[in-house]
Amino acid sequence: MIVVAMVELEGLSVLIVFMLVFLEGLIMDFKNSLRQICLFRIRIR
Fold first, then answer.
1. Structural domains in the chain (count)
2. pTM for the whole thing?
3. Tens-binned pLDDT, residue by residue, of the chain (45 aa)
4. Residue 26: which domain range?
5. Which of 1, 12, 20, 34 is the most exposed place for a label (fewest CB within 10 A)?
6. What would you report as the CA-atom Rg of the chain, rounded to the nearest whole angstrom?
């Protein structure tokens, strides 16, 4: 039982880390796109 719980915890932690990395990537993309939009608007003016 303990081994199964350990394996589940490991899988869960890996999943959480993966989700965090994925979210971080999304946030970085969002910031980059925002910056590009700002630069684009400045260029238009």
1. 1
2. 0.54
3. 677 877 788 888 899 999 999 999 999 999 999 999 988 888 877
4. 1-45
5. 1
6. 19
